[in-house]
Automatic annotation (TrEMBL):
Putative transcription activator involved in regulating light control of development. GO terms for cellular component: nucleus. The keyword Nucleus applies. This is Protein FAR1-RELATED SEQUENCE. PROSITE patterns: ZF_SWIM. It comes from Panicum virgatum. It holds the Pfam family SWIM. The lineage of its organism: Eukaryota, Viridiplantae, Streptophyta, Embryophyta, Tracheophyta.
């Protein structure tokens, strides 16, 4: 992993950083390669030293990308904030002292979802050694998906605080949010639900 991070760090030296927008302590940059228009948009918060990049490398594999490193460099952040150094990349992980943080009080639901997503991706790659393992994993995910749908339906029945919106997925790249929209549950016999003319 160090080699991969080192590559990202070296590559950021070939990128330029242009400020696109400022909204209080939130700075939006376009980070492009100096010899092409290749690049990504990065949003940096000066107050809490957090960054989100459109390439989503940190969210997918847990390593900061060259775009984020360039923005840190431009903003004189020369020591990586601790939230971007995952325990699994430290020297203690190899010694067996690493225990992944479960629900810490500071961990938001979005951060937790990103952490679980990385675990799921890692598990899928492990299972790619055989068709049987992948079939078992897919069946387990389908079962969890059904259980999640049932739990969400029960939550909607208990209170109306969970919004009912159309069944689609929306992404907000700048804020690093992904929202899945759940379809409204219609109760009653199928033949009495109404027909579409």
């Amino acid at each position: 992993m160090y080699k991969e991070f080192e590559e990202e760090f070296k590559e950021q030296l070939l990128f330029s950083c242009n400020l696109l927008h400022t909204d209080g302590s939130i700075l939006t940059y376009m980070v492009t390669h100096m010899y092409s228009n290749y690049g990504a948009t990065a949003v940096f918060n000066k107050e809490d030293i957090t960054i989100t990049c459109a390439c989503r490398k940190y969210e997918s594999i847990g390593i900061l990308c060259k775009h984020a490193l360039k923005v840190f460099n431009v903003n004189d952040v020369f020591i990586l904030p601790s939230q971007y150094i995952l325990n699994r990349w430290t020297k203690y992980a190899k010694r067996g002292f690493y225990i992944e943080k479960q629900e810490s009080e500071k961990e938001s639901l979005n951060t937790r979802a990103a952490r679980i997503s990385r675990k799921a991706t890692s598990l899928a790659l492990k299972c790619s050694l055989s068709k049987e393992l992948l079939d078992d994993l897919e069946n387990a995910i389908d079962k969890l998906d059904l259980e999640a749908d049932n739990s969400i339906s029960k939550m909607q029945e208990k209170n109306d605080e969970v919004p009912l919106v159309s069944a689609s997925c929306a992404t907000d790249t700048f804020n690093g949010k992904i929202s899945f929209r759940i379809p409204k549950v219609v109760k009653g016999p199928k033949n009495k639900r109404g027909t579409i003319s």
